Amino acid sequence: MEVRIEPSWKKILKEEFEKEYFKNLSEKVRQAYLTDSVFPSPQFVFNAFNLCPFDKVKVVIIGQDPYHGRGQAHGLCFSVQDGVPVPPSLKNIYKEIKSDLGIELPTSGNLERWAKQGVLLLNATLTVKEAAAGAHQGWGWEEFTDAAIKKVSEEKEGVVFMLWGRYAQNKSALIDESKHLILKAPHPSPLSAHNGWFGSRHFSQANTYLKSQGKDPIDW
Question: How much is the pTM?
Fold first, then answer.
């Protein structure tokens, strides 16, 4: 299968595309789009990679699953398209940014502007069935996205990994902490945000670290 993904990622993940699991995954996903209502729409499946080329990656934020409501998911974790109400977890992310950096809350939940500055907004699973959270977990997406995280860890230096919640924090095993900054906090979901998400100050910490590495900070 010809994978339509940004050229630098296509090169760095070339071996993954040739593996049996990815061929099986591709066929499963293709069939799912033919028979189910699946999000995001096909052109957005690799949006996290397409908007943030490998050589531009400065920050990695890891989510679990795309939003499974109609019109929300567009391939970036925590992000929704313009005109869609800001989801609860993202509202809490914005509140923490305001508290941490004094930035006013945006009206849009579209995080493309982060991606274009070098923030890889990566869900562990890149597709989902409508109204069925986790429906495509265990299909092989996790193996693929784990490979992407490992490549960033192995081939880059001075990247900030933001791991929110237990699921994302388990990915720390893939990351070389001796040459990257790992920031951990509870998930920003309303169910857990008051257990340490608020006050975590990840955004100022990330920018301080990036500047120490000679990189431009992120305009959150």
Answer: 0.98
